[in-house]
């Protein structure tokens, strides 16, 4: 084992922890052989629905060296977003990841600081930061780096912390010590499959993205399909059902990132408040939130679909 690599690896992991990341794992930047046929089949079957961007950059999704020239390591990082408090029971629901400030900004800032640290401490290192905005298979890299296994709901699961976390990467041209994958601990459990109201988990480990409530409420810009009426279980932005029922999420602990704390109004709003929401209130409650992606018109479309 190269002493330099080991020292650099230890430094990077310690700094990641100092920046607030809950876990950091590292794997060798190389072609994702196992994922290639799986991704190809998933796209051919049209499981991505209207998410056409999934078809782009197929080779880059599978090979980080095509994204970052000369890259040698993929540093995967997890950031907890599990909230201390949740919305009221008599409310339309939004996914917990969208309670606070848009995670893209929060994580990008932390990644920038981690990259800065690497360049200051280790020297001339080239690399790029990714937060689900580029063709990177986040979950595959995190699993390769030993941060968890990909569960039957196709989310990354960890025995220690469940699945309420964001995944991000730094792809760098630096040799480091590599972690090894962990084993799958889903066993014979089918809680996520049984609980999904739209049957989006078509078989264990395979999700039809075009049937997912998150897809309908965020990605789909057209009219919501009538056959889905009554199946959204009051979710107006995203959906956490398959995570909420997962036994491993018993171990989720509240995050300690103040930027992820919600606007207090979000937690106190009732169904009636949501049905009467104005554009001004929308702007105030979701000032820096990922919910802005769906816009006021998208959110009210979803609410109308739930109440009618």
TrEMBL record:
[4Fe-4S] cluster 1 binds at residues 186, 189, 192, 246. Its cofactor is cob(II)alamin; [4Fe-4S] cluster. Pfam families: Fer4_16, QueG_DUF1730. The keyword 4Fe-4S applies. [4Fe-4S] cluster 2 binds at residues 196, 212, 239, 242. GO terms for biological process: tRNA queuosine(34) biosynthetic process. Residues 174-206 form the 4Fe-4S ferredoxin-type domain. PROSITE patterns: 4FE4S_FER_1, 4FE4S_FER_2. Binds 2 [4Fe-4S] clusters per monomer. The keyword Oxidoreductase applies. Pathway: tRNA modification; tRNA-queuosine biosynthesis. It catalyses: epoxyqueuosine(34) in tRNA + AH2 = queuosine(34) in tRNA + A + H2O. Its EC number is 1.17.99.6. Cob(II)alamin binds at residues 61, 132, 153, 156, 167, 214, 239-240. Keywords: 4Fe-4S, Cobalamin, Cobalt, Cytoplasm, Iron, Iron-sulfur, Metal-binding, Oxidoreductase, Queuosine biosynthesis, tRNA processing. GO terms for cellular component: cytoplasm. TRNA binds at residue 221. It comes from the Bacteria. Monomer. Catalyzes the conversion of epoxyqueuosine (oQ) to queuosine (Q), which is a hypermodified base found in the wobble positions of tRNA(Asp), tRNA(Asn), tRNA(His) and tRNA(Tyr). NCBIfam families: tRNA epoxyqueuosine(34) reductase QueG. This is Epoxyqueuosine reductase. The gene is queG.
């Amino acid at each position: 084992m190269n002493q330099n690599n080991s020292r650099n690896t230890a430094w990077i992991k310690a700094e990641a922890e100092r920046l607030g990341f809950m876990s950091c794992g590292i794997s060798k930047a190389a072609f994702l052989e196992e994922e290639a046929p799986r991704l190809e089949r998933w796209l051919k079957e049209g499981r991505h629905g209207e998410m056409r961007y999934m078809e782009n950059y197929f080779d880059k999704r599978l090979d980080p060296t095509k994204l970052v020239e000369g890259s040698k390591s993929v540093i995967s990082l997890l950031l907890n977003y599990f909230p201390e408090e949740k919305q009221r029971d008599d409310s339309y629901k939004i996914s917990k990841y969208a309670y606070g400030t848009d995670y893209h900004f929060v994580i990008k800032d932390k990644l920038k600081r981690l990259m800065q640290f690497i360049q200051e401490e280790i020297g001339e290192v080239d690399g790029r930061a990714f937060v689900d905005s580029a063709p990177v298979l986040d979950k595959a890299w995190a699993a390769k780096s030993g941060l968890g296994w990909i569960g039957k709901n196709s989310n990354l699961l960890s025995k220690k912390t469940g699945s309420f976390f964001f995944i991000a990467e730094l792809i760098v041209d630096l040799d480091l010590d590599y972690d090894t994958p962990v084993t799958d601990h889903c066993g014979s459990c089918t809680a996520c499959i049984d609980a999904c109201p739209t049957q989006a988990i078509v078989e264990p480990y395979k999700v039809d993205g075009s049937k997912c409530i998150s897809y309908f409420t965020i990605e789909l810009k057209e009219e919501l399909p009538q056959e889905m009426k009554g199946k959204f279980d009051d979710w107006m932005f995203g959906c956490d059902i398959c995570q909420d029922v997962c036994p491993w999420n018993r171990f989720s602990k509240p995050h300690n990132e103040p930027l992820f704390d919600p606007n207090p109004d979000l937690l106190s709003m009732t169904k009636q408040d949501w049905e009467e929401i104005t554009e001004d209130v929308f702007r105030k409650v979701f000032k820096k939130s990922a919910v802005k992606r769906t816009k006021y018109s998208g959110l009210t479309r979803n609410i109308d679909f739930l109440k009618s």
